[in-house]
Sequence to fold (583 residues):
Amino acid sequence: MTGLLKADFRRVFKDKLLLVMGILAVVFALITPLLYIVLLSATEMANDEMVTGMLSGLITGKGQFFGSFSMGNNLGLIAPVLLAIVLCKDFSYGTVRNKIIAGKSRSQIYLSLFITCSAVLIGVMLLHAFITLGVSLIFFDYQPTAFTVADFWYFLASLGFEILVLLFVSSLLSWLCASMKNVGLVIVLYVAIAMVLVMAGSIAQTLISVIEMTGEHESLVALLQFASRINVLNSAAYIGTGTEYGLKDVLYLTIPACLGILGFATLGLFKFNKKDLK
Amino acid sequence: MGQVLSTDGLCKQYKKHMAVNAVNMNIEKGDIYGFVGENGSGKTTVIRLITGLIFPCSGSFRLFGVDNRSKEIGKARSRVGAIVENPSIYMNMSAYDNLKTQCTILGIEDEGKIQSVLADVGLADLYGEKKHASNFSLGMRQRLGIAMALLGDPEFLILDEPMNGLDPAGIVGLRELILRLNRERGITFLISSHILTELSLVATKYGIISKGRLIEEITAQQLRSRCAKTTEICADDPQKLAAVVENATRNEWEITSDGVKILGDTDLTALLSAVIDSGVKILSVHCNETSIEDYYLSVIGGAKQ
Fold:
């Protein structure tokens, strides 16, 4: 298993697309806070209080840091696509055969793929997030209030939840890579699934706000809130947006993600163990 | 001699197409097994089944005595090296990086091993070279694939159409490598090909497959005798003719319904003189020579009918 992992990391590190991911992680990290500054000054000049108010939560180091984990745009959307291209090379080049003929079990091969995918995705996203935080702190405060020990623990907990979301994405990606016949299909399916989940989350959030204003349809609001909270890729709406997590928050942020990871890993292992390889 | 591979009624079906149908093949240690068949006959499918890339619909096989359904099959498979259809190499990596990655999978730390296998396949110049495999010729990729297969010091090497893309010098080099590895390291080979004349220069045993069925397993010696020149003499008294042939020639012969069939080259003038002198009445004399291709075509022709 160690040999497989070393080999998988080796091939990923030898791939130029990893460098592309790294460059994009830095570029997006530099551009995003600057874009917010431009946007803020434009809205302030236009004296648009509503937009300025909406932006105020985002124009903090904290907002920028946790916002950079969003899987629906920028690096959050591009990194998994590039990673799928890198990981699927084992299948398109037929090099996965070398592992099977070397006597490695399919479960080990799948597990190694999942671990590599997770480590690289988490690594790239953390690099992006911490550079974003660093750049943001040049221009904005971390948060409007003073940073306390409780904030530190909240930060760590939020980071843990973000990593759980990235593990969910990795398990989805690994399942697609090991199950589909070509990388094109993997990318199309991944983007479709990610976009549907992210959009469903945004739509649910908007509907909740609109319906809440009317003060009616409480059961519909509850249903939408539940759907929104169990949507793992919508967790950006809940991670790092407050000051502490209640038990309900923790359960909503961990159970769906863990079930998703377990589900995709089981599906992937089952499919890969039965799959005829070229 | 130990058995390296034996299959028992191995079958593989894709939807309604029976790609491999009840194949029973046996490969002994030290064999160079020529796996012969036309395109689409099922050679690669059998190889994929043996290497664990696909699963049989029914039947089983034993690799180094280990049943394919056993948990120990991975261990047995680690004693195998293979190229299936085309070489399994990362096109975005150099020859060295490809071999280094495979070393990592196999747990080989000896750097000298990479140099040694590259030298074995005539690619010693590529050690330390940064050129990506995507820029290699087909022949170079094929040789790199063989080098990858050799890395784990396999006891059983499976080469699927290894001559594909090789130039004449490359084919000669590969043939010499196969013979050397078989002789010096005792490596058993399974080589699939449809280039019979080339295969006949190395193979010690053949398996002829057509339309998913293994038609015949035959040793090189048996094949040679079946393809050798034959002279058939028909006479009024086959028994007496046989006695004359026994005394007049050292060749192998066999009695037929109306005469005697003599295998191999023989001094026909001297033989016929002896027959005439003995008083046996000659009815006809036929000389035949079958090429390996003719023999193969006659075998698969029979199978198709």
